[in-house]
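Design job #97: recover the sequence.
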């Protein structure tokens, strides 16, 4: 397929700048892949489509406050630093992106905090915007992380065109997030409240977790028209024996398996074994899913409404069928659905 087949006009006012008042009260569009029928519901009604012993799979990665603002030694120039991942605990080494990159060279020192209490030295150039920083901090690793994260803010996507607010620390995070490492939240999971999880339990619907640390590659522009030539960034992931047992048992019993979000679907498809089963996995994945693609494990997908030309939209189109999904997006635009991480949701049956 071609990149241009995933282009559509998205009015700015339909990109959600804030989440719904309550997590489980966003709108939910339900699509039946077999018939193409579309229903309009409220998110908490999702459990009406599932029965006892069906399984939901969530991504329990936790977003950390990755965006820092500092200044450069001598000149005092304002610098934005985006933390990607910690490379070495002992030496306080981090892989980061910097803006404006042309001003930041090896050997420069950067200062963070109102009192410049956190200092980092640039020790390597990795890409045009990428740098390796060594933070100069006396104290334990836990104290360092706590001090660093206090200076950071939640890394909201750039299409949320407003300053980060206090509520984002809670709302740009899934309620079940526990394994730190993501800079992009698995947005489909944001719709699940404690009350909804309780109602699922009462109905006998099972759920389990994989971990996939979603990175900035999700927002990287695709610069090739031929999608077979696009390379995804690698992301770290883990599938536990507990999840494998839960999902494989559900498959053997003929129950539904619902992937909550495109990151979960990537994780599942990176850990596929024979006969529509899953296997344990601990490593990295750069799997890129676009139409046509045969899915063997998940029977359902919960996902948000994605940006034009995004890899997430391509995966949704692969699962739901290109024509059906694009038609659903047309309907969403007409019906005023909200797009993006804080927007509304779609369930594909």
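Job complete. Output follows.
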């Amino acid at each position: 397929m071609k990149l241009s087949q995933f282009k559509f006009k998205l009015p700015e006012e339909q990109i959600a700048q804030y989440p719904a008042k309550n997590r489980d009260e966003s709108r939910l569009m339900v699509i039946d892949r077999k018939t193409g029928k579309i229903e309009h519901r409220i998110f908490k009604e999702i459990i009406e489509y599932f029965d006892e012993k069906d399984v939901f799979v969530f991504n329990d990665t936790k977003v950390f406050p990755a965006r820092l603002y500092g200044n450069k030694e001598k000149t005092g120039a304002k610098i934005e630093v985006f933390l990607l991942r910690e490379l070495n605990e002992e030496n306080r080494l981090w892989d980061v992106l910097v803006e404006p990159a042309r001003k930041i060279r090896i050997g420069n020192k950067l200062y963070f905090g109102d009192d410049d209490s956190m200092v980092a030295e640039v020790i390597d150039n990795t890409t045009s915007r990428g740098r390796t920083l060594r933070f100069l901090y006396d104290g334990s690793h836990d104290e360092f992380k706590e001090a660093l994260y206090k200076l950071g803010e939640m890394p909201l996507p750039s299409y949320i065109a407003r300053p980060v607010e206090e509520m984002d620390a809670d709302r740009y995070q899934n309620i079940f997030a526990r394994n730190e490492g993501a800079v992009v939240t698995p947005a489909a999971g944001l719709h699940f409240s404690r009350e909804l999880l309780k109602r699922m339990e009462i109905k006998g619907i099972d759920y389990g977790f994989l971990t996939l640390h979603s990175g900035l590659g999700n927002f990287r522009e695709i610069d090739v028209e031929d999608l077979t030539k696009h390379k995804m960034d690698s992301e770290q992931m883990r599938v536990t024996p507990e999840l494998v047992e839960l999902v494989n048992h559900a498959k053997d019993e003929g129950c539904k398996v619902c992937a909550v979000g495109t990151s979960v679907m990537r994780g599942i498809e990176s850990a596929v074994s024979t006969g529509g089963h899953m296997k344990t996995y601990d490593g990295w994945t750069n799997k890129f899913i676009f139409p046509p693609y045969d899915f063997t494990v998940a029977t359902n997908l919960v996902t948000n409404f994605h940006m034009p030309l995004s890899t997430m939209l391509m995966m949704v189109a692969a699962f739901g069928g290109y024509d059906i999904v694009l038609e659903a997006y047309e309907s969403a635009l007409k019906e005023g659905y909200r797009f993006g991480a804080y927007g509304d949701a779609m369930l594909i049956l």
